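Changelog-linked ticket: calcium ion example.
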Amino acid sequence: MALKRISKNHIIYKFTPAMRPVEKAHVGDIVVFETKDCFGEQIRDENVKLNEIDWNKVNPATGPLFVEEAEPGDTLKVEILSIRVNNPAIMAVAPGAGVLGNLKYDSKVKIVNVEKDFVIFSGLKVKMKPMIGVIGVAPKEGEYPTGTSDVHGGNMDIAELTAGTSIYFPVFVKGALLALGDLHAVQADGEICVTGAEASGEVVVRVDVIKDVQPKYPVLETSNYYAIIAPGKDLDEAVYKATMEAVNVLKRKYSLSFEEAYMLASLIVNLRINQVVDPRKGVRAEISKEYVSIEDFLS
Ligand code: CA
Ligand code: ZN
């Protein structure tokens, strides 16, 4: 079994169909991605002024990885085997950013120590839950800065995208071209202030390909459920898209009319927020594994 490593010197700032791969892998290969933090490691202490950093170097994603067996029309499965975040983590707030960005307050940088199972926030121990903020594949066309998200993935900031979960992407170009970064030692649903506990680190993944079928949106798999990851210009749009796809999945799976699938969705589909602070908001529609399997999301 090959073990490949992509250093954090290989980074992208936008997902495009023309990205140049920096490493190749086959189905079943395990690949290590070293990642910079979302500030491009420009912030070392709390005195750094946010308006003095180079904003062209934020949200770097490591990669992209070319997966030999992946062709347009297929699905790329990325199994997250482990996530290690480095100490310390960095947080920031700035007027204009985050849920309460309309208020008047100061720009502030905060360094948060990362210990074994906790981050230390002003003496308060907050349980760690390392997760991946940015992960995606080449889009079909156009350019998507790594700070935003769409059906190719991107800056989705899914708190549940942790070690032990998998994420499935539609493949749009040969090789899929997987890139990831923006690790958080911990982040709650919403990413309210616009940052999680931002840290550099390392992610170990296993890649797989499902031939000739693909999901409409990225799909997250945890031990308990599958979730459709829908982007939107606002939460209403993201909720609508996630719901529409969940209803379609249930319709197909159980051969239901729209009306019945719509009702069933009201009983078994949980809508949850990924984040509300990036250029595109994100919602996930979770369906328990009691009712669906991955094939139900692929067509
Ligand atoms: Ca992010
Ligand atoms: Zn981040």
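Closing comment: Example verified and attached. The longest helix spans residues 235-254. The radius of gyration is 19 Å.
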